[in-house]
Amino acid sequence: MRSIGGTSLGSYPVGTRARVIVALIPCCLSIFIATLYLQVMAGPSSPCPPFTDAVMYLAAGERLNAGRDLYALHPGDRSVVILPEITTAPLLSPPPIAVLWRPIAVLPFGFALWIAACWVALLGTTFQLVLRAGLPGAVLASLLSPAIGEQLAAGNVAGFFPLLMVLAWRLRARPVAGAIVGLMASLKLTPGALGGWLVGTRRWSGVAAAVVAVGLLFVVSLIGSSPAAFVDYLRVATTAGPSTASLSGLTGLGWLSPCALVAGTLLAIGLGRWPRAAFIIAVVTSVLGTPSLYLSGWVAVLATLAPFTDRTSAHAKVIGHEG
Q1: pLDDT tens digits along 218-259
Q2: Alpha carbon distances (Å) from 155 to 25, 69, 166, 243
Q3: Residue 7 carries which DSSP code?
């Protein structure tokens, strides 16, 4: 079949230029939405400063560097946005994210470097996925542009998750895929649902790497914080209320989000014969399974495009042979 710009006439869009333009559309839309968010945040009446979540991480790193409590504020600590209907703690993430921020908080350009990395990782992943997935990818990414824009304006660590999930899929034959899953699970817990995909597809070296990664990060975080920080986090995690956008918050059923996390992980294991389906279910579960779900959290759904960007996917006859 004749091709133009290296792309078959039987696929859409035709030509490299057209594909690049299509891939840029959701990226530009997301940047525009992020700019609007940042303008509102910078306003005098806004309760949230620009890059709210990154500021929260910065404050957590500063508290650890000063030898202060991680999950409580004291005089002299950097102020952060606290939602009392959810928790009075100044941090909802596990201690590893604060330990990661200890050196970043010391660097004079650390905060700016984090924000730049967030934007490059999230927008770069969006562009590459849409470039390879074509029009369906552009539609999904455009629908997710409000979430991407909010994530860009928040600076949350979850902004790196689409990239990490895509890497886990593309490196699925190697143990490093499990290490990536372990890293994400250590930072946000619910991406541990991808462990169901690893188990279901019998990537035992990946499963072992995930366990090792979690163990190493636990030890490093224990040294970089304290045993008391982990105890305090368990208290915060078990007493915090769900966000209004989560399954638990929408229904008033506090157990629904954790049950969705467990059920989705088990479903991913059961779908192990179909690696694409198992991966997609695991990714979606990592979003729906968190009780602290906000619009920005939906950016992880971008990673569901990863199984459809493999160069061999168009020629594969049996999904079960693709993994």
Answers
A1: 999 999 999 999 999 999 999 989 999 999 999 999 999 999
A2: 22, 23, 19, 18
A3: E
Please state, as a whole number, how many other Cβ atoms lie within 10 Å of the Cβ of residue 173.
11
- Please provide the size of the chain in residues: 323
Q: How many CB atoms lie within 10 A of CB 287?
A: 25
Residue 243 DSSP class = P
Phi and psi at residue 121, to the nearest 5°: -65, -45
* Tokens 């792309």 sit on residue: 7
Report the alpha-carbon distance of residue 58 to residue 51 in Å, rounded. 11
Query: Are 97 and 57 contacting, i.e. CB atoms less than 8 angstroms apart?
Result: yes
Q: Give the count of alpha carbons within 13 A of 319, CB side only.
A: 13
Q: Which residues pair with 4 in a beta bridge?
A: 7
Report the distance separating Cα 252 and Cα 73, nearest Å: 29
0.85 cut: is pTM over it? yes
Distance (Å, whole) CA 111 – CA 62: 12
Instruction: Locate 101 and state its tokens.
Output: 């921020």
Number of other residues whose CB lies within 10 A of the CB of residue 56:
25
Q: In this predicted model, what pLDDT tens digit does every residue of 180-209 receive, in sequence order? A: 999 999 999 999 999 999 999 999 999 999
**Rounded average pLDDT over 290-304:** 96
Res. 315 pLDDT band, cuts 50 70 90: very low
What span, in angstroms and rounded, lies between the C-alpha atoms of 43 and 170? 42
Sort 59 into a burial class: Cβ within 10 Å, 0-12 / 13-18 / 19+: buried
The DSSP code sequence of 265-283 is HHHHHHTTTSHHHHHHHHH
**Alpha carbons 286 and 169: distance in angstroms, whole number:** 15
pLDDT value for 311: 67
Percent of the chain with pLDDT over 70: 92
